[in-house]
Amino acid sequence: MSEPSPVNFGNYQNDIYLNGLDGHLPPFTTDLTALGASARERLDPGAFGYVAGAAGSGATHRANREAFERHRLVPRMLRDATARDLRTRVLGTDMPAPVLLAPVGVQSIVHPDGELATARAAASLGVPMVLSTASSYTVEQVAEANGPDAPRWFQLYWPNDDDVCLSILDRARRAGFTTLVVTLDTWTLAWRPQDLDQSYLPFIRGVGTAIPFSDPAFRAGLAQPPEEDLIAAVLRWVPMFTGTDRSWERLSFLREHWDGPIAVKGVQHPDDARRAVDAGMDGVIVSNHGGRQVDGAAASLDMLPEVAEAVGDRTEVLFDSGVRTGSDVLKALALGARAVLVGRPYAYGLAHGGEEGVRHVLRSLLADLDLTLGLSGHRTPGELSPDSLRHRPS
Ligand SMILES: Cc1cc2nc3c(=O)[nH]c(=O)nc-3n(C[C@H](O)[C@H](O)[C@H](O)COP(=O)(O)O)c2cc1C
Ligand SMILES: O=C(O)C(=O)c1ccccc1
Known about the structure:
The chain is α/β, with parallel strands linked by helices. The chain has helices spanning 11-21, 35-42, 45-52, 59-70, 114-125, 139-146, 162-174, 193-197, 210-213, 216-220, 230-241, 251-257, 270-278, 300-311, 326-334, 344-375; strands at 71-73, 88-90, 93-95, 99-101, 129-131, 152-156, 179-183, 262-267, 283-286, 316-320, 339-342, 389-391. Helix content is 42%, strand content 12%.
């Protein structure tokens, strides 16, 4: 069989200019740093605050962007970078570019099609989605929308009831989710003023609980099914997934019961990355949850080089928190990430236009990435290194 050829993501630029000849503009802005402002006008304040919000004073949320601003690319010239190949293999998954959709819970609060729309948009471009445990739709529904050939990973909020945990993992595996992403940094929700000030917490109303509420093992532990006693079901689920007794040793349970690759998400310190490798994890995702958990935590990008240095030759290092543009992706790759995940930008795309909105955001990001890679003098993501960057003079 011949190798599939690389996708020319930069063509989206041509498409937009050519459509302009017929009087058609892009569905909404191509500036992904401006999406939050326009999403604010489309969403009700509770939903907007939930997506845009951060922990505490927002210091870490701002630091994530500031770290990207501080690093600058140093383009190289005359290197024949006209034909690029962005294809990347991460944790056994072939992807057309080093970009995945980060797990974002309760997507139905921004658009009724929620994760189904995201799954369709992701599949149309071959970009892997990471489905959150806090999905508005079940793993089976999302898998169907995503289709038989699309790559998909499952993010686990680790239930502290082992039967429920195993049942959810089994369903995810059967539904074709190949890689497990275990989120470590959100064993309880942080102090989030935007949500607190509006008393806005979707899953307390049973939104974003489709996976546990449809789960036979979870339902078996309820006196009444969730459809009859929502409050009791919520009160059982919330403490179950904000488990309290986790330790590195217990990762062996997941290692034993998941036969595909596992990555831990929310690693910041290089010693934690080492522990993850020692626990048999195949990947670490350097992330501060988009500044939504520890206010005052280091910018995720600033921790990436240390983590890559500590474990980059023993495990695959991925990155998220603050990625908005093609050049941001390049900076994270240069500092040691194999691929990046994006969160809020596609959630805003979903708010703007469902499946089409997510597709527009992804095509914009990938076109920008492709063009900026080439204009910086590179043909493949693997060519980037710390030497591709300089610190902005202060
Ligand atoms: C609205 C929202 C919901 C999120 N839900 C989850 C979740 O269910 N599971 C998880 O591991 N991370 C969750 N995250 C964190 C993202 O996976 C990711 O780490 C973060 O959004 C990356 O930062 P960015 O938004 O700056 O790209 C969520 C983020 C947002 C904005
Ligand atoms: O809001 C979040 O950041 C998040 O991770 C989450 C946690 C639980 C349910 C939904 C989303």
